[in-house]
């Protein structure tokens, strides 16, 4: 498995990472541990906290945890009067990537997370944007202090938007891909169901005819010459034919 989602380079890698990612989380839960619990014990170790958060992208909580760890690194450098522009740029990058996802996909009628998870991390990483174009007001990951730091370092931006709005074409591309994938799986499921149903109907029709013949034979053994038995024989034959006709109609 790739070290993190952000390193996936194509659709196949993104899909494999998603499968491995959720299998890992399932195993961790069964073992009684979860990354969100482990990360709480790393509050005094921002670098380790940041690594664990990045390993769990693109979960919404992992963006928040990564931002918290990055802020801690910035504060440390501010205290020592060291340059922290690299950490500040990384914080802005986190906020930008986080702004690409929306809460809900109307096309899929699913959480927007399912779309961003299907996109190779490298694809998002390479989307072009600048601070001047993206701004900070619409980036939900940021707090007031973050915005103050940005303005101190880079001044006021020209615009304020989100990466989702800036690259809506990429979102729609992958949203449609996922929709087509869902439709294909549904069609395959329906085909399998039809095949199972057809086989079941054949078995039922054979059983119905067998019952009809069995009842007819039983009546004949008791005395087919009897007028009442002849009526019963005719009745069972009609029932058998009716059942078979209904099954053929349903199958068609």
Furnish the topology, listing elements before pairings.
Blueprint: H1 11-30, H2 35-38, H3 46-55, H4 60-79, H5 85-98, E1 104-105, E2 110-111, H6 113-118, H7 121-125, H8 131-134, H9 144-154, H10 163-166, H11 168-223, H12 227-251
Antiparallel strand pairs: 1-2
Helix pairs in contact: 3-4, 4-5, 5-9, 11-12
Describe the structure.
This protein folds into 2 domains: 162 residues, no CATH class; 58 residues. It is elongated and about 105 Å long. A two-stranded antiparallel sheet has the order 1-2. A hairpin with a 4-residue loop joins strand 1 and strand 2. It has 12 helices and 2 strands, in the order H-H-H-H-H-E-E-H-H-H-H-H-H-H. It has 252 residues and is mostly helical. Helix 3 packs antiparallel against helix 4, helix 5 crosses helix 9 and helix 11 runs antiparallel to helix 12.
> SSE order, as H and E?
HHHHHEEHHHHHHH
Number of strands: 2
Number of helices: 12
Give the class from helix and strand content and strand pairing.
mainly alpha
The helix fraction, in percent, is over 70%
Strand content: under 5%
Q: What coarse outline follows from CA principal-axis ratios?
A: elongated
Low-confidence blocks of residues: none
Summarize the structure.
By secondary structure, the protein is an all-alpha fold. Helices cover 71% and strands 2% of the residues.
Characteristics of this structure?
single chain; 252 residues; mainly alpha; 2 domains; two-stranded antiparallel ribbon; 12 helices; 2 strands; 2% strand
């Amino acid at each position: 498995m790739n070290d993190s989602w952000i390193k996936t380079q194509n659709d196949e890698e993104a899909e494999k990472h998603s499968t491995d990612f959720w299998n890992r989380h399932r195993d961790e839960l069964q073992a009684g541990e979860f990354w969100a619990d482990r990360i709480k014990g790393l509050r005094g170790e921002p670098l380790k906290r940041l690594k664990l958060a990045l390993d769990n992208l693109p979960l919404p909580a992992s963006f928040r945890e990564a931002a918290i760890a990055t802020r801690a690194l910035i504060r440390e450098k501010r205290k020592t009067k060291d340059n922290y522009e690299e950490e500040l740029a990384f914080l802005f990058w986190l906020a930008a990537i986080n702004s690409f996802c929306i809460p809900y996909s109307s096309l899929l009628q699913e959480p927007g997370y399912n779309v961003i998870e299907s996109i190779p991390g490298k694809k998002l990483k390479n989307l072009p944007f600048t601070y001047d174009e993206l701004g900070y007001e619409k980036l939900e990951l940021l707090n007031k202090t973050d915005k103050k730091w940005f303005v101190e370092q880079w001044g006021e931006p020209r615009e304020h938007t989100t990466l989702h709005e800036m690259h809506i074409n990429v979102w729609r591309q992958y949203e449609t891909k996922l929709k087509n994938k869902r439709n294909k799986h549904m069609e395959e499921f329906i085909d399998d169901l039809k095949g199972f149903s057809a086989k079941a109907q054949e078995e039922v029709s054979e059983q119905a005819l067998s019952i009809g013949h069995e009842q007819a034979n039983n009546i004949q053994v008791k005395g087919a010459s009897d007028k009442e038995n002849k009526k019963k024989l005719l009745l069972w034959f009609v029932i058998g034919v009716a059942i078979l006709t209904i099954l053929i109609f349903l199958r068609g």
